[in-house]
What we know:
This protein has nine helices and 33 strands. The protein has a 19-stranded parallel β-sheet that branches. Helix 1 (47-56) packs parallel to helix 2. The site of uridine-diphosphate-N-acetylglucosamine (UD1) has 27 residues, from strand 1, helix 3 and strand 10.
Amino acid sequence: xxxxxxxxxxxxxxxxxxxxxxxxxxxxxxxxxxxxxxxxxxxxxxxxxxxxxxxxxxxxxxxxxxxxxxxxxxxxxxxxxxxxxxxxxxxxxxxxxxxxxxxxxxxxxxxxxxxxxxxxxxxxxxxxxxxxxxxxxxxxxxxxxxxxxxxxxxxxxxxxxxxxxxxxxxxxxxxxxxxxxxxxxxxxxxxxxxxxxxxxxxxxxxxxxxxxxxxxxxxxxxxxxxxxxxxxxxxxxxxxxxxxxxxxxxxxxxxxxxxxxxxxxxxxxxxxxxxxxxxxxxxxxxxxxxxxxxxxxxxxxxxxxxxxxxxxxxxxxxxxxxxxxxxxxxxxxxxxxxxxxxxxxxxxxxxxxxxxxxxxxxxxxxxxxxxxxxxxxxxxxxxxxxxxxxxxxxxxxxxxxxxxxxxxxxxxxxxxxxxxxxxxxxxxxxxxxxxxxxxxxxxxxxxxxxxxxxxxxxxxxxx
Length: 463
Ligand code: UD1
Ligand code: MG
């Protein structure tokens, strides 16, 4: 996990007795979307995925995600990070306290610390979470000091600096509203204390909701201590609408650009390059302006990616040159020292070491052997309207310009295909394939035709 707010990297540690609960049942009305809010993506990864990955660095034993009704798509997202995560459905949105109550049944029997997270707070770092879980108190609230505290719950402290209450904005007195130490919503609490206090939370507040934040007052009342840790405001930025989603995207992009440059990539215009959270870039890679990396990309050392290329679900081995204007789609595996040029699209295809596909070409569902040269305008006709088929091209093959390879078809090593051919049968190694109609040349035909046309035009203009 990338740590944005420090210079050091927090390594995965083995900790005993940690469970996480991610609250994500909110519909996200302001997103104006058919998709649950936490399934919206930033840097190619869902908001929920960002939160879960930050938590995964703490190696929790258990994970529960509280979803709303009809949010089935969240299960796959959660299981991609925690294969054994429990997804619990909060049937009615009755507040953050009620949401945690829903997770209780699946965490029955678990003893240790419970870390409660929000699914729509994606920039939280594993370092901050770790810092929260190692506090000695029975309960620790993650606080921050926002530039504008309005809308947040305020932390009420006693003289010793312990937290004795969290007051929601709507329930706060004018004096309490002046406090700028605010609740991020993220808390760490011992399971024993949580299960003891949770049933005591009521809904006698301005919103009529079960507030998780009431735990703090209950904790103090039970003679237990609640403390707080402070993190930068940017780390607990939430997403409520698409403007805030774009803000999160911008923060992540800035962080990834910086990280890849510090790791040895040259970005000539960093502000125009878009990474995914999982993009892997080797050393001495040059990335020209306006390059987009979708999810699942890995780039080897010394690769050059020229301007306006779009790369997604693809791997590029060391020393290759991609673009300008190249499109690598899922399943493209580009071998070392290969060239993929302008207006070339590669999908689910292996391109061998040193092969060249330089101009205006579609290579899909194919294998292209080492050192093979694919001429301009070559198309693998992979789809027959029902199924996809393989085009298997050997090593050292020469494919002339404007060749259509009608799959399934195989071209043996060292074969040559003449320009303009339509290949519908396998070509043996070393053979020449040519499907070209006989060329006819009619001497002086064009000159005579031009003279006739000019004469016709002159006659028309006179009349
Ligand atoms: C909450 C905190 C507030 C804090 C703020 C930080 C409470 C009562 N208040 O307020 O102190 O300053 O977050 O952003 O906790 N959710 C459910 N089920 C529910 C209600 C909420 O899963 O029934 C989830 C939401 O999807 C969201 C999170 O809990 O991820 C927080 O809910 P939200 O309604 O945004 O709480 P706030 O009013 O912002
Ligand atoms: Mg909120």
